[in-house]
Design goal:
This protein is mainly alpha-helical. Helix content is 69%, strand content 0%. It contains 3 helices and no strands. Helix 1 runs antiparallel to helix 2 and helix 1 runs parallel beside helix 3.
Length: 131
């Protein structure tokens, strides 16, 4: 089977612009995450999502019509790694926030400690062990 033909220069420039837009959005989201700026995080997350959707469409079409240039493939893999790292960072931050909320606002019922310090599972017996 013959090797795929390289992407035409016009298509290569389009892919370059598409990937550059993703990289810009990734950087902006990274800055917003570092600053803990929730409104900017939301804004840049939405913009990144749109840029990624365009990039997926453009790169999928380009791959069907020829080989992707190695430098663009490498940049795309780097961007994908950055997205994964930011997603992981965001998940850790969300988990930490959830734990803080659970401490400040305990859920009714399970997991609440009694005056003796242990969870009050046997409320009818006052939490003490009987022989």
């Amino acid at each position: 089977m013959p090797a795929s033909a390289p992407i035409a220069s016009g298509a290569g420039a389009d892919l370059e612009a598409t990937l550059a837009a993703v990289e810009i959005r990734l950087h902006a989201l990274g800055v917003a995450l570092l600053e803990s700026n929730s409104s900017n995080i939301e804004l840049h997350s939405i913009e990144l999502h749109r840029a990624l959707a365009r990039a997926v469409d453009h790169f999928t079409q380009a791959a069907r019509h020829g080989a992707l240039p190695a430098p663009l493939r490498q940049r795309l893999m780097r961007a994908s790694s950055q997205v994964a790292a930011q997603r992981e960072s965001f998940a850790r931050a969300t988990a930490a926030l959830d734990r803080a909320i659970d401490v400040l606002l305990p859920r009714e019922g399970g997991g609440v400690y009694s005056a003796q310090g242990a969870p009050d599972r046997n409320s009818g017996r006052g939490g003490s062990i009987q022989a």
